[in-house]
Amino acid sequence: MIEEASTRAAERAINQFMANRHREPSPHRSPCRGRGSHSAPEDNESRENDSRDMSIDGKHSSHASLPEGLPQRRRRVEERRDRPPIREEGAASNRREEGAASIQNASQQHGGTQEPLPLAVAPARRSPFTMQILAEALPQRIRIPTLTNYDGTGDPEDHLDKFLAKADLLDMSNVGYYKVFLTTLSGRAMVWFNQLPAHTIENFEQLYFLHHFSINKRYPKTTSYMFAIVQQEQKSLRDYVQRFSEAVLEVPHLNHKLLVSILQQGLRRGRFRESIAGKPPTTLDELLKRAAKYIRI
Q1: At what angle do helices 156-167 and 174-182 cross, to 10 degrees?
Q2: Which stretches of sequence are listed as region Disordered (predicted)?
Q3: CATH class of 223-296
Q4: Fewer Cβ within 10 Å of end Cβ, the chain: N or C?
Q5: Cβ atoms of residues 213 and 153 within 8 Å
């Protein structure tokens, strides 16, 4: 009997303990949540204390409720956000200084130097002109005449005549002419000049410019050249007169009366030849005017 009474008393005590445990509210969750009821004052106070414990330097942290790894990433984001902004000018200046320092270090490592190269490193100047010509300075603000460069293929005398005609407009000595003339050479002509012995040329006569390129010189035509200009078969009078007039310009000091006879001999048989034979012109100008009338017919 005593044992049964003790057993029933123990069961009642256990049931009472379990009943009290079920009625006891959860420290983190209100039993009336979702029913529109208000939390007890003790619960509100507990949540405020929890909120204060979870606050760090006035900033709320939700590390306790975030998945693993997120609190650390969020902390890094907040730290970057709280950093003071970097001034772009300072950053750019630092990058430029670092770049200049690295270039200077690399130059020093490879034996570089910012000092000018010694004169011995520069190639020695070699010029066919004498030292007297090289030492004389050209007038200030000189305007070098525009002239087609001579490359060694044209008539050298023609090039020299054109140069002297323009150089005469400049107020300078003969020494200045030599220096300016050098600027008109190119190609094979410049190669030839640079191969002349150093410091041996002091005038145009010693330069032998015309002599060296004389193979390209155009020699004037003689009177006998005019006899080769004839009116060919199937060629018009206009073509013959034009070729004859161009040939006259290549023959200096021609006798105009002789030219009339030469032109008449070069004509084919026709009315213009008969007209000249009946009344010969006295000058070349008269001959060309009469030829122009028959050309228009």
Answers
A1: 130
A2: 1-116
A3: mainly alpha
A4: N
A5: no
The tens digit of pLDDT for each residue in 250-277 reads 888 888 788 888 888 888 888 888 888 8
Q: How far is CA 145 from the centre of its chain?
A: 28
Give the relative orientation of helices 271-278 and 284-296 as an angle to the nearest 10 degrees.
Answer: 150
Asked if 184 and 150 touch (Cβ cutoff 8 Å), the reply is yes
Sequence ranges of the domains in the chain: 131-216, 223-296
Residue showing tokens 């004052």:
41
Interval 26-35: pLDDT, tens: 444 444 444 4
Burial class (CB in 10 A: 0-12, 13-18, 19+), 285: exposed
The winner for highest mean pLDDT among 97-101, 168-172, 244-248 is 244-248
Q: Report which DSSP code applies to 279.
A: S
CB atoms within 10 A of CB 150: 25
DSSP per position, 60-100 = E--TTTSPTTHHHHHHHHHHHHHSPPPPHHHHHHHHHHHHH
Give CA–CA dist 40/76, Å, rounded.
Answer: 38
Place of tokens 């910012």: 114
Burial 178-190 (b: 16+ CB within 10 A, else e): bbbbbebbeeebb
Question: Residue 185: what are its φ and ψ, rounded to 5°?
Answer: -95, 150
